[in-house]
Write a structure and sequence with these properties.
about 350 residues; mainly beta; Jelly Rolls; seven-stranded antiparallel sheet; five-stranded antiparallel sheet
Length: about 350
């Protein structure tokens, strides 16, 4: 990856005395030429490189605001500091960072992931997404119904949504997915509560970690506490994602003090416009599957799109559209205390 910085020697012409002014001039000229070539190879002086912009599809990058440097091709992992090196972005030394930070992390912290968000499986672009798809959005993607959401990312061939093994609240960045875990509860229920979701060392199916929430609700709540994830988060908007390549989702779940939960699948049409959807009246009539059994032991659950229905007494009635899903939500029963864990969330064919 390192380019040669050797400057050509300038021998005197045969039988002629050395003209030091001429040598100096030639040396200066050669130095300038080689320096220019070296910068071009390194990508530092190139004018056709674009920034690693998290809002433009999370292109796999190098951590320094450019998609390529040090001889790398655009969209490929680079070194993170505009110098041939280790990908850490915190020390410019070739091959290793020379400091307390582990080589190759891309974010200036140790151990590193290549991102600014603390994940462990990073791509080096510094945008807080632990795994990115490695290319900008496809120009052929459909436009979202809400113009603030831009294009609708299409699902690819990687079914995993998140396995929480990185221990953070960012979902795996497969197939242009860029979302987060979150919790929600009715603020009108002043004595109810729910904690923010956290990764804990209690994984399903032989894995190390899962996502965890605890809380409670009372009869004062109009809607129950939940834990959810988004697929295409843009600021405060949960924008739609095209999951039409799949027939549903699967996940592992376990809980104490509750025996059932609902799985809710918000869509663009059922979500309020202020939240990334297109609904303006009678919103939040999200599709769901209700009363799914849960126990204190891990259990794998599969829910197909065909099993979902809208509430009979809530929200505008619209067709379910797998090309426009906005997330997943595990909803606890009203007027209960709960301790809920979710893991190994995947799409299913």
């Amino acid at each position: 990856m390192d380019s040669s910085n050797l400057v050509p020697r300038v021998p005197p012409e045969s039988g002629q005395p050395i003209n030091m002014f001429d040598v100096a001039a030639r040396w200066s000229l050669c130095s300038c030429i080689v320096a220019a070539l070296s910068l071009s190879v390194l990508g530092c002086a190139s004018t056709n490189l674009t920034k690693d912009d998290p809002s433009s599809g999370h292109a796999s990058g190098d951590g320094d605001g450019m998609q390529a440097d040090a001889g790398k091709k655009p969209g490929k992992g680079g070194d993170g500091d505009q110098t041939p090196g280790d990908g850490d972005g915190d020390q410019p030394n070739p091959g290793q960072d020379g400091g307390p930070v582990s080589p190759g992390d891309g974010d200036g912290t140790s151990p590193g992931d290549g991102d600014s968000g603390g994940g462990v499986n990073g791509d080096g672009d510094g945008d807080a997404v632990s795994q990115d798809a490695g290319a900008p959005p496809n120009a052929n993607w459909e436009n979202a119904g809400n113009s603030a959401c831009g294009k609708v990312p299409e699902s690819g061939s990687t079914a995993l949504i998140d396995n929480v093994e990185d221990g953070n609240d960012v979902i795996a960045g497969n197939d242009y997915r860029h979302g987060y875990w979150y919790s929600d509860h009715d603020a009108a229920d002043t004595t109810g509560n729910v904690i923010e979701p956290v990764g804990v060392a209690d994984g399903a199916n032989g894995t190390a970690k899962s996502i965890h929430i605890t809380g409670k609700s009372t009869s004062a709540a109009e809607y129950a506490p939940s834990i959810g994830l988004s697929f295409d988060a843009k600021g405060d908007l949960n924008c739609p994602y095209d999951a039409s390549a799949y027939t549903g989702v699967s996940f592992y779940v376990r809980a104490t003090t509750i025996t059932t939960f609902d799985l809710v699948v918000p869509t663009e049409a059922t979500s309020d416009k202020t939240e990334g959807g297109t609904c303006t009246t009678d919103c939040d009539g999200h599709y769901f599957k209700g009363s799914i059994p849960v126990s204190s032991s891990w259990k794998k659950v599969t829910v197909l799109w065909s099993e979902l229905a809208q509430p009979a007494d809530w929200g505008s009635q619209v067709d379910f559209n797998a090309k426009r899903i906005a997330g997943l939500s595990w909803v606890t029963p009203l007027n209960s205390s709960f301790d809920l864990l979710v893991d190994e969330v995947e799409f299913v064919k």
